[in-house]
């Protein structure tokens, strides 16, 4: 009897994961960085705006990269090891960002987003509609979704 209830619960969760989309949980007020920004500018944005992921756009506002707080730590660590700390002050973000990040559409299901997170070494998906940035879906958004689901 217990096994059957667990199967029903699992099935219900799977249904919800396959029905809900990232559009329902993504952040739509997104700060973006431009490809010509210098590393210190990005570091200041992370600190002052309390963000962890920043999509990078070109002059046409097309997403060309993403930079994360973890990337900033890796950049600093790498430059320190190489004795090139000065590049942290003068470097272009284009040299350090993840180029051509994995993106999704607003219709991407939560189940699909989880698979993308699991497959990649990232925790943020820029959300594009007709190649235009409309939001960002992060691991924190996923946690919010899971929290709401578990409260039911």
Question: What does it look like?
Answer:
By secondary structure, the chain is of the alpha+beta class. The chain has one domain (25-151): Roll (CBS-domain), CATH 3.10.580.10. A hairpin with a 2-residue loop joins strand 5 and strand 6. The strands form two sheets. Strands 1-2-3-4 form a four-stranded mixed β-sheet. The chain has helices spanning 2-19, 39-49, 69-81, 86-90, 110-119, 139-151, and strands spanning 33-34, 53-57, 63-68, 98-99, 124-129, 132-138. It starts with a helix and ends with a helix. The model is unreliable at 1-8 (pLDDT under 50).
Helix and strand topology:
Layout: H1 2-19, E1 33-34, H2 39-49, E2 53-57, E3 63-68, H3 69-81, H4 86-90, E4 98-99, H5 110-119, E5 124-129, E6 132-138, H6 139-151
Parallel strand pairs: 1-2
Antiparallel strand pairs: 2-3, 3-4, 5-6
What attributes characterize this protein structure?
152 residues; 6 helices; elongated; disordered N terminus
Taking all Cα atoms into account, the compactness measure Rg is: 18 Å
Q: Give the number of DSSP strands.
A: 6
Q: What is the fold-level CATH name, i.e. the topology? A: CBS-domain
CATH superfamily: CBS-domain
String of helices and strands: HEHEEHHEHEEH
Helix percent reads: 40-55%
Mean pLDDT: 88
What count of domains describes the coordinates?
1
Strand neighbour order, sheet with most strands: 1-2-3-4
* Percent of residues in β-strands: 15-25%
Query: Ends: how far apart?
Result: 22 Å
Secondary-structure-based class equals alpha+beta
The assigned CATH architecture is Roll
Task: Show unreliable segments.
Answer: 1-8
Tally of helical runs: 6
Largest sheet: 4 strands, mixed
């Amino acid at each position: 009897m217990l096994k059957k209830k667990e199967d029903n619960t699992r099935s219900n969760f799977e249904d919800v994961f396959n029905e809900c989309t990232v559009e329902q949980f993504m952040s739509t007020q997104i700060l973006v960085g431009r490809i010509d920004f210098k590393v210190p500018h990005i570091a200041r944005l992370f600190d002052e705006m309390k963000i962890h992921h920043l999509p990078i756009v070109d002059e046409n506002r097309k997403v060309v990269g993403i930079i994360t707080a973890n990337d900033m730590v890796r950049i600093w660590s790498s430059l320190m090891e190489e004795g090139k700390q000065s590049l942290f002050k003068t470097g272009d973000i284009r040299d350090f960002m993840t180029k051509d990040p994995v993106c999704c559409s607003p219709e991407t299901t939560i189940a699909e987003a989880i698979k993308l997170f699991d497959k990649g070494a990232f925790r943020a998906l820029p959300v594009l509609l007709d190649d235009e940035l409309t939001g960002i879906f992060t691991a924190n958004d996923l946690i919010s979704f899971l929290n709401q689901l578990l409260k039911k």
